């Protein structure tokens, strides 16, 4: 059930009394309504229900006073980014005349105040709310989504969400377009960086965790913002991973693999849903009544607001389902798209559509009600400046160092790093001798923050070099050389630099840069090569046909390898990369994704062993791009490939190995762990029952450390073919050197059933296999029978 944001502090007996205090002051014209605002329900009614009824009464009363134009105004979300083309006076006039419902891209309280002042001059004084893309941090930037997911640490992820909300709300913001829970199985997509990887269960857990962390119990309270989960739906399954492309998917896969994370976020109480730009099975999401009404509202009970993606309504024309803007507006509103982002058509076309009878007033009212509910829940009718605050309390410097949460960012970031290889215990490094730090990303403060870094400032980010320099100050000598440009392809550089300076091109020749790097490497005891992608290469509109490290940097790596010095590759990237050469040639390799404001410190912590890495991959790393989509929870096929017995007519490639380079759930530590004694509490169970799967995990190495114990389940014989295994639980545990602990997981219908093509959840009797281990190859297994 969709949870509503209503005061839940009220014990039942005090409900009636306290409710009066919670009743929001209606706009001036409806002050009389206050007199009759006492709850119509008695004190025995659950306070949430009473408050819910009060909210509906309030919203209905307000809507009765609104003209059609004012209602339509509530459905318009305007982007105000103070760019040169924004005509502020015209916008203020639109707001004053009740033609704007909400604003995004304004991130300072003074900016919002001017806009809210205009709303307070409108006839009904309906307040604006303010939204922004707070994706992985606000002023303090945390690791990108894939990094957060790699932590497998719900406390750390919640902490990133709480701090994002505190910082964003301190800037007056009310809503973020996050979390993004689009499952993706294709690393070519640039937006993998924003999401949490390929797994449905992990992504669902993270989505729910973040929604709760961002929203808290009551979004009218300071330190909270509403979450609009996105992109509904299935954006991560676009064909060929080419951004904005089409999705065509079986209902079975949709229900089982792609939809649950959105549902989990909604069940956690997400106030909003952002509608995807893509079409699903031929129907653009923005114009899909099945998706936005039947599934979202009727089946899932969603009560919040749906927001179109940027310009998506007008794009219905190019999708080929709308003849013109008017047609697009008609389709979108009838489908259930409430708020029009960067509106071009709702403002112009909805009114004539209602007048002609093509759109009913009831359809407009439904959308307006959703918007007004959000404003009510935010407490904006009580006080339109509730989150913006008073001018005298505005921060003197919005970018002040004191507004950052560096310690939290460092703690979360170090938990997000994944050790991919560590031959001969190359890592951790000692803080002594000479270390050559080489690579175009080593000194970059912009890249370490990653894309969608919101209000974060690059100059406040800690580069890898800076982190290493601070960690070794007075103890080791650091040498530095850029070694290569991130990429040498001039056309790609132009593309990446179009809207934001992404790639800094060094005018020296590639040979000269490599020569300088080699010289530094020769003088060093160990080489740290900080290579990968610029942040803009793993972003919206950043799909790639290949997923290798760009050629300029690969040439650098080859040259560094040739020096014979120990080579540690520190990767920065926002998608799985194909790293066969790097795996074969590096002595050690650390995946750092884009680790955020404190990235450099966190990376140094891990490289020097001040933190023992514990991250695990949330996405499969293929060997070569031709293998994609490659994911761990695939079906077996009728002719599975068996590496022990590699027959010709099996499901395989003849020119490359079948399996991944690094499987889902994989990641090393500076210590070692052993899993033993996997057992189930019972060998037989009836449907509806519960059993416990447990195993003993031992830290068999010489360092304390954390690992992620993973539970996978397989239904080997079912009415339809089921995956070879699916993640159904995980637990991140800390063990001292030599320590062992039993870890257990409950298994019941939820872990055993699956959705069929009609969206029904089935739990079928028969044998089930249970695997417990430290990555998706977990071999330790047990079985039971379900009756
Ligand atoms: C387009 C993106 O697809 C979406 O994720 C984002 O929230 C909006 N732009 C607003 O910036």
Automatic annotation (TrEMBL):
Pfam families: Fn3-like, Glyco_hydro_3, Glyco_hydro_3_C. SUPFAM superfamilies: (Trans)glycosidases, Beta-D-glucan exohydrolase, C-terminal domain. It is an enzyme of class 3 (hydrolase). GO terms for cellular component: periplasmic space. Keywords: Carbohydrate metabolism, Glycosidase, Hydrolase, Periplasm, Signal. It catalyses: Hydrolysis of terminal, non-reducing beta-D-glucosyl residues with release of beta-D-glucose. It comes from the Bacteria. Residues 1-28 form the signal peptide. The keyword Zinc does not apply. Its EC number is 3.2.1.21. It is found in: Periplasm. One of its GO terms (molecular function) is beta-glucosidase activity. Residues 707-776 form the Fibronectin type III-like domain. GO terms for biological process: carbohydrate metabolic process. NCBIfam families: PRK15098.1 (NF011678). Belongs to the glycosyl hydrolase 3 family. This is Periplasmic beta-glucosidase.
